[in-house]
Specification:
Layout (H helix, E strand, L loop, with lengths): L14 H21 L31 E4 L5 E5 L2 E5 L21 E3 L5 H4 L2 H7 L4 E5 H8 L5 E4 L4 E3 L4 E6 L16 E7 L2 E5 L11 H5 L5 E5 L8 H10 L4 E5 L11 H9 L4 E3 L6 E3 L1
Parallel strand pairs: 3-4, 4-5, 5-6, 10-11, 11-12, 12-13
Antiparallel strand pairs: 1-2, 1-14, 2-3, 7-8, 8-9, 9-10
This protein binds nickel (II) ion and manganese (II) ion (MN).
């Protein structure tokens, strides 16, 4: 449990704020652990709400921290269980990410939330440089890259799969999806990573949706979540605050903002909106890692 001691490198939150958030995260975790398990009724004696955390998810201790590196827009590298997971590779089309060399990226997995250009722009470059990398996406995305001879693992919404770094659930996202060449791409999706190093929700491009409430009902307590906050194409940061409540997560990493004119945001106003609700919004520096 020592990972919840508020270890944050490279974000702009104060240490005391981090501590308060770490404590509330611990409380959430302890609440979930204390009220699920083998109890007969599964109701919390403190707040009378029902705990849905499944028995088999209880009591799992964290071994280390997940390391998350931001490559701009919605592109992140997550390091966990000794593996490198790249999400939504889009670098060369993003002037804000000009310091990141797509050809230098090394990864074991490429996760695709959906197939718009700003999420897969550099996927084939990265895949060519990492021939053993496994591309994970919804069935149609997997089929598209399989047909190009790449290694893929298909999923669909609601399903879990156990990879060599941990378990992954594909979850709902409310958005659209098609490949830039017009090929169908199924539907957009998000992912919950449940590893020995922590639990992380990567929402992908999505509107605020009530389906987010299903995540804490079906997954272990989140350590952090990556949510879009830029509006116009996705939810804005006000809706993302509500999303953070739906998923019962105090620590949010923002994405899908500032890259183009449609999605420029006021950083201070966005952080204040979260702080006003007792939550933390982390706006990461491109190329800089944090531990969650
Ligand atoms: Ni999109
Ligand atoms: Mn997008």
């Amino acid at each position: 449990m020592n990972k919840i001691a508020g270890k944050i490198a490279g974000n702009e939150g104060s240490l005391s704020a981090s501590h308060a958030i770490a404590n509330s995260r611990q409380n959430t975790r302890q609440h979930l652990l204390a009220t699920c398990g083998k109890k007969e009724d599964n109701f919390c004696p403190q707040c009378s709400t029902r705990c849905f955390t499944p028995d088999y998810l209880c009591g799992v201790q964290h071994l280390a921290d997940m390391k998350v590196t931001y490559y701009g827009h919605s592109c992140f590298l997550v390091e966990t269980g000794g593996k490198r997971l790249l999400f939504d590779p889009f670098l060369t089309g993003n002037p804000l990410a000009s310091s990141i060399d797509a050809n230098a990226i090394r990864c074991d997995y490429i996760f695709v939330t959906h197939s718009h250009q700003d999420h897969i722009g550099d996927l084939e470059t990265v895949a060519a440089n990492n021939p053993n990398a496994l591309i994970v996406g919804i069935w149609e995305v997997s089929a598209y890259y399989s047909a190009k001879g790449l290694r893929t693992h298909p999923m669909n919404k609601g399903g879990w799969w156990t990879f060599d770094f941990g378990r992954v659930k594909m979850v709902q996202a409310v958005h659209s999806s098609v490949f830039p060449d017009g090929m169908p791409a199924g539907e957009p999706a998000g992912y919950v990573l449940d590893t020995a190093d922590g639990v992380l929700y990567v929402a992908g491009d999505t509107a605020l949706t009530l389906d987010m409430q299903l995540i804490p009902m079906t997954c272990r307590a989140l350590d952090a979540a990556i949510l879009p906050i830029g509006s116009n194409f996705t939810m804005d940061y006000h809706d993302a605050c509500i999303a953070a409540e739906f998923i019962r997560c105090e620590r949010i990493i923002g994405c899908h903002y500032d890259t183009f004119g449609f999605i420029k945001i006021d950083h201070d106003a966005a952080k204040k909106a979260f702080a006003d609700k007792g939550k933390e919004l982390i706006l990461m520096q491109i190329g800089q890692p944090i531990e969650i």
